[in-house]
Design a protein that fits this description.
The protein is an alpha+beta fold. 54% of the residues lie in helices and 9% in strands. It has eight helices and four strands. The mean pLDDT is 93.
Length: 213
């Protein structure tokens, strides 16, 4: 059965790869699995048909052979566990790769999202001028720790894995913010992720989906 994922009919980022369906597209491209994309309008996110797939009314969702999943991290992990290419065979290395997936979503991404919300959703509040620098310091603190751990290596733990896929996806959210400039190894790390042919295909597919007539 063909894999079907959901994505916004028109993503708020205009197809620049920041919507979470890009992570799923990238994972599927890395493991060579074909998929179809079903576009969802914002109003449809709260309708029963979509809420049956994701009770929180967001994207992406994943459907295959009677299985329906939501949350990009869970979907990418499912893909990585079912198909070779994103998780090492060695049990310890495999566990570490999965740990990096959780670190990306639970440790690095929250302050990045907090910064985005502070700027986009709360920028007109009288207290936002004072809050944004505080939030950005939280982002820098996590970047500093991640940079120290990555060092001069290409990937977080040996070969490229689902952990790197998820971490690069998270860091892409601040690619144009200037925050990565203080951490050249992280900027280079993100560039390596973007240069992967699988990412290039996923990005092109999402852009084409968002710019179709």
């Amino acid at each position: 059965m063909t894999i079907v994922i959901t994505a916004f009919e028109r993503s708020p980022d205009g197809g620049r790869g920041l919507a979470r369906d890009t992570r799923v597209r990238w994972a599927l491209e890395e493991v060579g699995q074909p998929y179809e994309v079903r576009g969802v309008q914002f109003a449809a996110l709260k309708e029963p048909a979509h809420l049956a797939l994701n009770p929180f009314g967001s994207i992406p969702t994943f459907e295959e052979d009677g299985l329906a999943l939501f949350e990009s991290g869970s979907i990418v992990l499912h893909i990585a566990q079912r198909h070779p290419g994103l998780l090492p065979d060695d049990p310890h290395a495999r566990a570490r790769a999965i740990t990096w997936m959780f670190a990306a979503l639970n440790t690095v991404e929250p302050p990045i999202l907090e910064r985005a919300n502070a700027r986009l959703l709360e920028g007109d509040k009288p207290w936002s001028h004072d809050r944004i620098p505080i939030v950005e310091d939280r982002v820098r603190d996590q970047l500093r720790k991640l940079s120290a751990r990555l060092g001069e290596t290409d990937w977080l733990d040996g070969a490229f894995s689902a952990g790197d896929l998820m971490m690069v996806s998270v860091l892409l959210r601040i690619k144009t913010s200037g925050l990565l400039e203080a951490f050249p190894n992280l900027a280079a790390y993100v560039a390596r992720g973007e240069a992967r042919p699988a990412y290039q295909r996923a990005f092109a597919d999402q852009l084409a989906f968002n710019t179709r007539p």
